[in-house]
Amino acid sequence: MLSKKEIKDIQSLSLKKQRDETGLFIAEGPKIVGEMVQHFPEQIERIYGLASWAAAVLLTQKLKTTIVTEAELQRISQLQSPNMVVAVLKQFERKEPNAFSWAIYLDAIQDPGNLGTIIRIADWFGVQAIVCGPGCADVYNPKVVQSTMASIGRVNFFYDDNGGWLLKQTLPIIAATLGGRLLSKYNKMEKGILLIGNESKGLSKELIAMASHQITIDKRGQAESLNAAVATGIILSHLVP
Q1: How many CB atoms lie within 10 A of CB 8?
Q2: Fewest Cβ atoms nearer than 10 Å: which of 23, 55, 68, 90?
Q3: pLDDT (tens digit per residue) in 128-142
Q4: 3-state secondary structure of 186
């Protein structure tokens, strides 16, 4: 049985302030927790799972596991429909990226689902680094974590709080805009930094001015714009070797 303090401590990880103070975050569901167990067991602080989940998963003796009831899972879950298991994990150690072939720079991506999906897309295409400019969502927001599906542990992300990281870079800077050269006109590029803008406002004028290339995804229909994560996937699919 979970104590009131345990429940309160886990619930508090929904808040950025508490995540920052404790250095912890949560992941939920058999898929993402299973991947964390398999690939990042050293990050796991404790697992809280239903007996039916624990019986079906081979856990190493090093992992601290607490069996909970469905009622207890409901209280500690951040999901509308709790899914069998909640894991409390230590945040990953991150460093400012300075050696990479491809990186993504995000300008005030505020939607947690978009940020998490972009992290997952970066993992798919082998992009080594994501840099979040001022105004981006917190990568350890539970909705971001769920959207990454464990890619959060494989992609290095860095918060450029002062907005000076791009000024130090020498690779081509590619800005996704609505008025650039068509993406279909480009060949694969061995290296680059892709700039993706805010969901409603796009890229700031300051960032666009720093770009060596402005590109636009070829359009055939009448949609005004594309979701930031969708655009990221299309562009990386075309440019990354």
Answers
A1: 12
A2: 55
A3: 899 999 999 999 999
A4: coil
